[in-house]
Specification:
Elements lengths: L4 H21 L8 E3 L6 E3 H17 L5 E3 L10 E9 L1 H6 L5 E8 L2 E8 L6 E5 L3 E4 L2 E2 L12 E4 L5 H14 L5 E3 L4 H9 L5 E5 L3 H13 L3 E3 L11 E5 L1 H13 L6
Parallel strand pairs: 3-4, 10-11, 10-12
Antiparallel strand pairs: 1-2, 4-5, 5-6, 6-7, 7-8, 8-9, 12-14, 13-14
Length: about 260
Amino acid sequence: MPLDPGALVDVAVLVGREASDLVQSMRAAAVSDFDTKSTITDVVTAADRASEQLVRRRLAELRPGEPVVGEEEGGDEVDGLTWVVDPIDGTVNYLYGIPHYSVSIAAQVDGVSVAAAVVEPASGRVWTAWQGGGAWLDGRRLAVSDQTRLDLTLLGYGFAYRADRRKRQAETWASMATVVRDIRRAGAASLDLCAVAAGRLDAYAEHTLGRWDWAGGALVAREAGAVVYLPGETPELGADATFAAAPGIADALFAALVEHGFSKV
């Protein structure tokens, strides 16, 4: 099929909303119907699996022949267009009834996101972006903050699942808390990246994200004007680092993260 980023966004929104409705309808059962993956704190619910199955089925109907990479069922990236799906980003929040989780669907071409929708099941909000077309929240164009002072920066962050790595991360975040306004841990990378796009956070940094975690939100942040670095792009921050920041504080924050040991976590 021809590459039309606007049409790809429309598909991502349509399918994302359908998956979001399914996820929300299954929320009550989540507390008793879940398993664990890499560690006992890394959970997967029946809704994660059902959401991904729905997305895969609908994409096969709407965009036949295009491969899908998903958090739960995997898949291989290929040359050309690939869909990247996080059926529930923020599963621990979902399990506990904290309304900060999303369904993220992005279209990538040769590994680069060109269109995306991040849908919030609890609120119905829809974040969208396409390459060169800007970033949007329910039809309102987004722009990153105009922050220029590191000491007034609100920084979003995340933790890995392994306890040993979390300990090292906690030391870095405690150190970073002395040089920024404050730090926030919300628990859903896609929405943290969208928060940077909307100016709700001035910046966000995390290690260990999978492609499905950042594929949608990073495009939203970049199209809103953020400086974005993805895993593998900045060895100074660590091989698996994701970074998004308003331009006015991006360089200073990058340097502070390096100084305070972010690459060593």
